[in-house]
Every structure is written in C-alpha cells, then in structure tokens.
Amino acid sequence: MLTDKPTPAQIEAAVHKAIADVLERAGRQPGAIDNDSPLLAVGLTSLDLAAVIAVLQSRLKVDPFFVRKAITDMRTVGDLCRAYRDMIGEG
Amino acid sequence: MMERAPRVALVSGGSRGLGAAIVRQCHEQGWAVATFSRSPAPYIEATERNGGDGRLFWRAVDGRDSTALQDFVAAVGDRFGGVDALINNAGIGRFGAFPLMRLADIDDSIAANLRANIVLARLVTPAMVARGGGAIVNISSVNAIRGNAGVAVYSATKAGLDGFTRALARELGPRNIRVNSLAPGYFESDMVSGLTETQLRRIVRGTPLGRLGSVDEIAAAVLFLISPAAHFITGHTLVVDGGITC
Q1: How far apart are CA B66 and CA B75, in angstroms?
Q2: What element of type H or E holds B178?
Q3: Residue of A nearest to B78 (CA)
Q4: Is residue B186 among the annotated active site residues?
Q5: How far is CA A54 from CA A22, B6, B128, B129, in A?
Q6: What are the chain A neighbours of B74 within 8 Å (beta carbons)?
Q7: Which of A13, A85, B137, B151 is the most exposed, fewest CB within 10 Å of its CB?
C-alpha cells in the first residue's frame, strides 16, 4: 500500500503489477504488459478486471469505476492507468 | 484462496431484529462481523462494554448513501482484510393501499430494499473475485413469492432481489462465489408488530406449523447458507416460513 499520494509512475507500476498478480493467481503466465497493450490481448476477462480493481482499491485506495468511469471504455492498459491517474490527481 | 481466520461477515442493518440476530449468531460461531445501521447496535455496544474481542465492527451508515457504503466497505477491508460473506439484510417496510402510496415511500422502499443491496454487492464482489470465493445472502420475503394486498412495492423490491440473486449466482459461480436468497415468512419482529390480532391469527391459521417463526430460526438458516454445509448451493431462494407458501 502506498501511504503518500502516488506519482504517475507509481500508479502505472501499481496497475501493471496488479494485472500481473491477477493473471498469475489465475494460473496464466503474464506476458509483456505495457500501456499500449489491449486489455483483452493481455489475457484479462471481465471478472479478472474486477479482481484488478479490487487489488488496486486495496493498494491505491480508490476505485474509479464505482462512480466516475465505465470499465467498458477501457481498451488498453494505458486507459486503465489514466483512469487511476485522473482520479488520484483530482483527489 | 488463501485461508484467513476468523472468517468475516458483513451484515447490513445489524442493529435490531433479524440483522441483530444474524450478527449475534455469526459472532457466537466465531466469525468477525462488520455491520452498519442508522441507529446503534445494542448487542455490539454490550459486547464492547464487556471488553469485546476485536471481532465486531459497527458504524452509523444509511444504506441509501452510496458514498457512505463505499467508505464503510473500505473500512471493513482495513479492519478485517476483506469480506467472506455478505448478508444483505437491511430493508424497510412501507405498507398500505398501493393506489394511495406516496411517491417518497415508493422511492424509499426501492432505495433501501433493492438499490442499497445491489450497491453493497457491487462494492464487495471485486475483492471476493480477487480472493477466489465468498458467499452472499440476500434477505428476500415470502411476499416475493405470493401476492398479498398492501405490500406491492415491498414485494417488487424483494422479487427484484431474487432475480438479482439468480443472475449474480450465474455470473460469479465460476469464481466460487455463491449467491442465495432467503425468504422468511412471518416471524416475531417489528415487521409484524403493526399487524392486528385478527391478521396475526389468520397468518398462524394459514401456517402448517401453526405459529410464527422466531428471529433465531431465520438467522440460523442464514448461517447455514454461508456455512460449508451449503457449499453446493447457489442461485437458490430458501423459503423459511413454516409452510405458509406451500
């Protein structure tokens, strides 16, 4: 868990790590995760995304998808990073 | 799924009636229990006065306030590390002739009995998915199953919860999250305290077991649904009504 307001680089690292953790826990080998990767290509199902959101809620203490953003608008890993950056930046 | 001890139950509306009985039975059976309500919870206050054991957590929250619900779920996560069982118990009764019902009472019923429970499940399920399991019990009513005069909106909210239960059971079953409804019949509670002696006698006459239920009997059925004994039960509405709907 991050105690101070995380930097954009820390947010990006947290998102990438959460994705890798969820895939690993599901027994799938995480491939290369970069901001241009489509979420589907990374191997995330919609319920995997729910798990990613839970992991990030616990680490970053925010959930941009409860009120502000629609998960269906997220196409790439970078979109996900931006959603968290926007919310934490506004917080 | 990583095993944590004790297991954690989140019970909405745990200050009195059925909610208080569920909180007490969960606590007695070793669960850590988080609950919220608008008014204080006497069982939790009494336990804390006697020293407590760190397994009870209460906050004043109005379930119709989604931001307050979000803060509460986050606080439960900080305190207990997650939620293994969600019991959507909180609800209100606004009864009376439907053609004369105030809009505010219709809105309140839907907000408290349906929307708040859906929102709470939305807040709790991501972490259940992440941890690989969980159980949800939505407290429905026999009024979702049988038509009765004077309870149309209440019945609609409870039937809505039953539909929500079945759809969510399908969606989350593959992630080892079980979702069930429990439909109590008439039991000794505030909900029946407004009934006349004549109405109560009619209910008892129509109940094969010949009596009202007790709040502990209903709570025990909830405990069953979140227990290992119910691990193959999901998408089900368990009717606990002394047979009045059979």
Answers
A1: 14
A2: strand B177-184
A3: A58
A4: no
A5: 10, 21, 8, 8
A6: 57, 61
A7: A13
Flag if B70 and A54 touch (Cβ within 8 Å).
no
Query: What is d(CA A15, CA A31) in angstroms, rounded to the nearest whole number?
Result: 14
Contact (CB<8Å) B70/A63: yes
Helix (H/G/I), strand (E/B), else coil: B37: strand
Mean pLDDT, to the nearest integer, of B232-245?
Answer: 97
The total number of residues shown for chain B amounts to 246
| Total CB pairs under 8 A between chain A and B | 37
The tokens for B191 are 């909900």
pLDDT tens per residue, range B164-207: 999 999 999 999 999 999 999 999 887 788 788 998 999 999 99
The ipTM, to two decimals, is: 0.88
Please give the Cα distance from A52 to A65 (Å, whole number). Answer: 11
Say if CB B85 and CB B9 are below 8 A apart.
Answer: yes
DSSP strands (E only) in B2-133: 8-12, 32-37, 56-60, 85-88
Q: What is the distance between the alpha carbons of residues A46 and A53, in angstroms, rounded to a whole number?
A: 11
**The tokens 């502990």 sit on which residue?**
B216
**What is the rounded CA–CA span in Å between residue B241 and residue B246?**
9
pLDDT at residue B193 in the model: 81
Q: Is B150 in a helix, a strand, or coil?
A: coil
User: Does the distance separating the beta carbons of B77 and A58 come in below 8 Å?
Assistant: yes
Rg (CA), chain A: 12
* Kind plus residue range of the DSSP H or E element containing A48: helix A46-60
Question: Backbone phi, then psi, for B152, in 5-degree steps?
Answer: -60, -50
pTM recorded for the entire structure: 0.93
